[in-house]
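Worked Example 4.2. Consider the chain below.
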Amino acid sequence: MLRVLIIAGLVISLIVFSNGEERLEDIKAKGELVVLTRNAATTYYESREGFMGVEYDMIKAFADSIGVKARFIVKEDIADIFDAISDGKADIAAAGLTQTRERESKFLFGSSYQKVSQQLVCRRGGKRPKKVEDLQDVNIAVSANSSYVGQLKKIKANYTEIEDTDTEALLKDVWLKKVDCTVADSNIAAINRRYFPELLVRFDLTKPEPLAWVMNKDDDMLQDLVDAWLEDYVESGELDETMHRYYGYIEKFDYVDVRAFQRKIKSHLPRYKAVFKQAAVKYNLDWTLLAAQSYQESHWRARAKSPTGVRGMMMLTLTTAKELGVKNRLDPQASILGGASYLNQLRKRIPKSVTEPDRTWIALAAYNVGMGHIWDARKLAKKLNKDPDLWQDFSTVLPLLSHKKYYKNLKYGYARGEEPVDYVKNIRNYQNILETVMQVNSL
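Applying the procedure from the previous section yields the following structure tokens:
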């Protein structure tokens, strides 16, 4: 901050740093942004591809924009996160934190990047409260120091604060019938009910509330920098792309389907798992992706048959099977290896400008609808000023192939364009559930 003093007619310039400016200078001097976060599917977690999560991707992008590296410190207790920010032990907390009036009196918040509602989550067959007045007889457990505590106090509900736990663990406890209900942000509930399908959202306790990054009360300059960056991140479409990456495939929830899938992970998958792994290694694919695709195609039924005559675990047409050298489509090993080979061929045909994971999503769409329609959709995407290399954009164009206004001028004509979009969404959903169930059960 530049301040000008006038003494005896002389103009003297002094550089005076506020605490916020000192923090920024310190971050840039160290080349490091220290970030507090939590382990959760909505924030930060480690996968086979490395670290992932909405908060992780956004923080990395912000750190890159100011020319430093992000160093993450994982805290499981929300109170510990706020204490560390107060004590100046970290620069930013990016942990899916709700912006409340009480917290605003103690901390600075960046602009909101997402809005969520607090939801009461119970279990099928358990307590069935329909409104706030019904909560007096419900055993509600919530994470201590969470924003849910304030809301439950406000509505005068009976509740228990649980120390050293998080919302995800309490959702599992509800599923295990250890407690009647808990409270979770709507995004957390949406992801976890796919792992524990008996979870049931009874009703919203709040209107949508903002999630935002948290900073020390003195870090106003850092707050300004975060706000300016987020504005650009939104305008560039990168925020939408990030949200689509993590939430784009969980919009639909089918209890019966998810429950059946989880049962078949135990009953059917073990006999085919080795073949999926063999095919994955041979064609440089993720075996859980192949397993998820096979489930979408045939529900892991070796003798599956469609009305149009496609057969087997990977539902190959007779023509495709012959081209791949698959002599018996009902042979599970031959079908899985053939399907993996075909998916790999499609992936290689996609232009080099398409990077992963979009390349795989588009290849899966081609597996479903045919490569000709993929070329048509790419052409149409360019005409509509959409990016044909991004699945987020491309998936909005494919459904247009069923509209005469668009398909009448395309080489391959009409296609049921919604189907490949749902196809990819379902596979991503199954893969995510499969990976999580395997981790939980150590399969």
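Residues 218 and 440 are 42 Å apart (CA to CA). The first strand starts at residue 2 and ends at 7. Compare this with Example 4.1 before moving on.
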